[in-house]
Amino acid sequence: MVNDLRNCPKCGRLFAYQGRNLCKKCQEEEENEYLLVRKYVRDNPGATIFEVSEATGVEEEKILQFLREGRLQSKGLAAALECERCGKKISAGRFCPECIKEMDAQIKGIIGSQGSEGKKDANIGRTIKDRMYTRETDRK
Length: 140
Ligand SMILES: [Zn+2]
Ligand SMILES: [Zn+2]
Description:
By secondary structure, this protein is mainly alpha-helical.
């Protein structure tokens, strides 16, 4: 295995990159923050990002990141996320279900009508979907 050494963007320490751009220590910290946030959201359904941030001490930006990654889902927090394509309020991920459907159809259309160029777009589509749906199972 090749050791891909990087500087942790959070604490600046050198670490061996293994799929996540954070050192082990910061990853653990993030995991703890995630568990804190998840617990609070479960106990306090309908809480706003601000409230969750106040109660858990986790940065709002971090909570948004959990939402964007689709790890965290809450109706109360939903209002903070917007579809990157149409701006509609969504509860998880980066796009609303309608846009996902439309993009899916577009990707399929491209594959149907074009050659290698379409394949590239299909890969982009799959990456988005992988991020949204298979994040947990994808982990190694
Ligand atoms: Zn670090
Ligand atoms: Zn949308």
